[in-house]
Amino acid sequence: MANDQLFKTHYTALAAGISGNSDPDAVISLRKSAIREFAELSFPTKKDEPWKYSKVDGLLSSLFSPAQNMSAVSDSLLSSARFGNLETDRYVFVDGKLNPALTQKSPDSSVSVITLKEAFASVPNFAETFLSKSTDKSDLFANLGSAFLQDGAFISIPDRKIQTRPVHLLFISTGNLVQPKLIISAGKSSESTFIEHFISDGNPAGFTNVSTGLFLAENAVVHHTKITDESDNGFHIGRIEAFQQTNSTWKSHVITMGGGMVRNEVTARLSGEGVNCLMNGLYLVTGTHHVENITLIDHQKPNGTSQESYKGILSDKSTGVFDGKIIVQKDAQKTYANQSNRNLLLSDEATADSKPQLEIYADDVNCFHGATVGQLDEMQLFYLQSRGIGEPMAKAMLTHAFAVDVLNSIPQTEIREYLDQQILERLHSPFHFEETEV
Amino acid sequence: MNEIEQFTKSEYKYGFSTDIEQEMAPKGLSEDTVRFISAKKNEPQWMLDYRLKAYRHWLTMKVPTWQNVHYPQIDFQDIYYYAAPKAKPKLNSLDEVDPELLDTFKKLGIPLEEQKLLANVAVDAVFDSVSVTTTFKEALKEKGVIFCSFSEAVREHSELIKQYMGSVVPYTDNYYAALNAAVFSDGSFVYIPKGVRCPMELSTYFRINAENTGQFERTLIIADDGAYVSYLEGCTAPKRDENQLHAAVVELITNENAEIKYSTVQNWYAGDENGKGGIYNFVTKRGICKGNNSKISWTQVETGSAITWKYPSCILKGDNSIGEFYSVAVTNNAQQADTGTKMIHLGRNTKSTIVSKGISAGRGNQTYRGLVKVSKAAENARNHSQCDSLLIGDKCGAHTFPYFEISNPSAKIEHEATTSKIGDDQLFYCQSRGISAEEAVSLIVNGYCKDVFKELPMEFAMEATKLLSISLEGSVG
Amino acid sequence: MLSIKNLHASIGGNEILKGISLEVKAGEVHAIMGPNGSGKSTLSKVLAGREEYEVTAGSVEYLGKNLLDFSPEDRAREGIFLAFQYPVEIPGVTNIMFLRTALNEIRKYHGKEPLEGPEFLKLVREKTKILDLDDSLLKRPVNEGFSGGEKKRNEIFQMAVLEPKLAILDETDSGLDIDALRAVSDGINKLKNKDNGIIMVTHYQRLLDYIVPDFVHVLLNGKIVKSGTRELALELEEKGYDWIREEQKEEVV
Fold this sequence. Notes:
The complex is a heterotrimer. Chain A is α/β, with parallel strands linked by helices. Chain A has two domains: about 270 residues, no CATH class; about 60 residues, no CATH class. Chain A contains ten helices and 20 strands. In chain A, a hairpin with a 2-residue loop joins strand 1 and strand 2. In chain B, the strands form three sheets. In chain B, strands 5, 6, 8, 10, 11, 13, 15, 16, 18, 20 and 22 form an eleven-stranded mixed beta sheet that branches. Chain B has one domain. Chain B is about 25% helix and about 35% strand. Chain B is α/β, with parallel strands linked by helices. Chain C has a single domain, classed as Rossmann fold. In chain C, strand 9, helix 6 and strand 10 form a beta-alpha-beta unit. Chain C has a six-stranded mixed beta sheet with strand order 6-9-10-3-11-12, with helices on both faces. A four-stranded antiparallel beta sheet of chain C has the order 2-1-4-5, with helices on one face.
């Protein structure tokens, strides 16, 4: 446990040193209480059920510090993170800090993106309405984030605005402690698309600990895609929590393609009636990397529907974890919930752990879950071969096909194609996908 | 009185108690208790040593809390760990069994007179802490089958006990397994020799009678190469206001080409409609398919107990070995159950099947918890799991927590689970054909459970069907 | 082009083919008939290279090469096409992507440049026209959600695009209603020419009304026990297989 102590001492000391003269009082007191909570909580172990299959303990032996200066970002890196010719409003965060010089946005955009500091000044009750609500005080890493609260953004879209241009939130890590906090507030009957996109400059060691709170007002529609493609030497812990009001729709996609140790926690609180939630995920894990997805769909009110599909493709010596829970509370009658986790093991030394869970307290419900682990289908492989397609390509095609339906619900073709190409590259595929128009 | 009330008032049929002279150990648990039990049973020194080791280990352990059930802390010093009907020291024939006892088992529908028994079922009757009698012993002996009380086996077949006891569930396994190893009072022992198909079903009938007692029995079944046995277990207890603890251990071992089929119909007293009284059923059941091509099949129908907490499991060590788990669990009123299975695939070409049907009614809360683990060396492992939950009424809960840990790519693992209620249209359809709501529910639920019931031996299947309707009485609003 | 000599094959230790010999020349249509379980489907799978079948004796020469040496994909590239009895569903892979990959792999094998999108589309459109198929078929995932008849037509459509030298049609007629059967046979007839060979494996002679075979062989218990012309098929239709079984017995006696 000596490591545990070292870990805490390191981060509490750093957090205490953050200069906060110009910060609002609310921020300073938030940080202080978070430091206290952080110091009291113990580091999670395999005995803690939500961390049963976690490899987060690697963080005990690698300690990180925040970046001192804002690094410069090369044009080639920026352009490699583009989605084909898709026009987006782009905001670039370097080591968690918004770099306004790199912002590209259309003049008629209805989405506002401001720093947290600005939000404190301009949004009434910002801390109570948004910040505290989307921070789990019992979670060590959430508190770690709050202890350093500074970076990130408050993003809002007004009532009834339809923003067709996606908002691309590009996070570039240069290998430090990176802890942004994002708050997204979607107004009544608004519709918008957000892409949280995490990449590294080079292949540095680093620790990204990001937290996103989404607030969907009545009848709002939010398409939300998170792409994690950071350094193989890095750690990434991401918490996303969405609060959904009546009749709102949240479509979440969590795509993990890179990172040494990645933990995605995705939570949907269906706190209004008739809410829709789509939670899709794809984790493509290679080498000795480890990816864990912890999801929770909390049906609190009647007539909600949730549809969840997470797929893992595990090769080499990698491990992939799915730990997904659906709760249907007493009041949530007429809930429809469907959860599925499917895994493809491509090598002898890869491991898949899966824990799909249903916790149901209402009787008039239809809930399903399914989990599978297996290899590529032999008959399908033979069928492709019997048409002249060589084994490596046949395997790549089938693997791609396995993955692709998770992406189908992303509305922008360019993003789908971008992800497709990325997936094929990771699979070292001789096969190249091209959407042939018929 | 309306229909619902009428049904809720239906009595637990086996709730009577027997007034019989008892011999009991002093209340509470200490090394002296352990020595007392061992002495009562005339055990050899090695057995006492084993118990003491287990007891000392138990002292170092903490009560597990991870399971999804809630109950007040158990005071382990407020329990009698040994209660036996005072009787002649040795029972050679039924004539020597206390007529009160015979009568008790008769009331339970378990006649012990061999001529009256269902043909082809040999019974070991366990009353509180001791085995009362074992029927058909002679007939079995001819085939070389050993079927006797555990106490007798400790004395008469010590080599087998020494070799196998604790080999599947070591006393270090968990809190209640350690407790059991320290204070177990009796149970059943079965050995089926090489190549023998046991000519009849073997059955143990457990009855808790005495107040404030815990029942801690052990069952050990060994099927040697090519052997087969089907084993049935049934349980009841009187209605008492206090909770009673039942912490048993069951170990199954199959050698090459052997098969054990283990069926349980658990109908311990569940407590009253307000959740007062009832049995805490905390049981460790595990089998190992040691030999190639061997098979272990668990079938359980869990309708009783205030709290059920158990996971009959299979370790599939032999190549081509097969593990099966078929379960129906019903929770009504304030009952709670956290049950499921573990399938540990170690050998090559191993196969497991899990079919779990949970029915929650009243304020019952039920959890399916299961683990399917495929180790690196377990080539071509196959698992199919189907876990369904049925909810009746809006105050109950149903939870499904399966775990999969797969480390071999040739594994093919499929799990499906559903949670739903009985469709209004199904009920209406039945009713429009003249079937009452109660009957319709019973009909639909039985259909829902048929995949499990078909695994039970005939007599048990009928009993299970009946039990199910009784357990669900009063659940339709 | 194909010469099968004394072919024996088994699965899981069970011998299914017990010495089959068959010669197929370019331009010929052969029908292989036989009751269920006689080994018809096994023969077609062995020729296509399904690995679960083990060839225990005999040889298969195809265009002067030992066919059994080739992987399934190389057999396809060498011009062998198996129309599956039960075409496999591949969710997530569209027909067009599937076919384009297959065709270009085959072209690559023969040292030809891959077909670019527009050229490929042109080819595919021609073929859909010949077979009177709807273009929407191309966008759908391979065989997923297809009716039985659609699956069989899709097999023939693939055959049209890949232009094999030797086509093996495994029970292509089974499960088809008369209209579908006519459509499928029309397609096959359009693809038939003097340079390619066709082996039709079938249970009924119904298909042979539409595609007239040059030779008919009866497969019984893993062996070809009788060969003849179209008339043999008609005789089988009328009298069933029993009389051949009887004949066999007499011969043995």
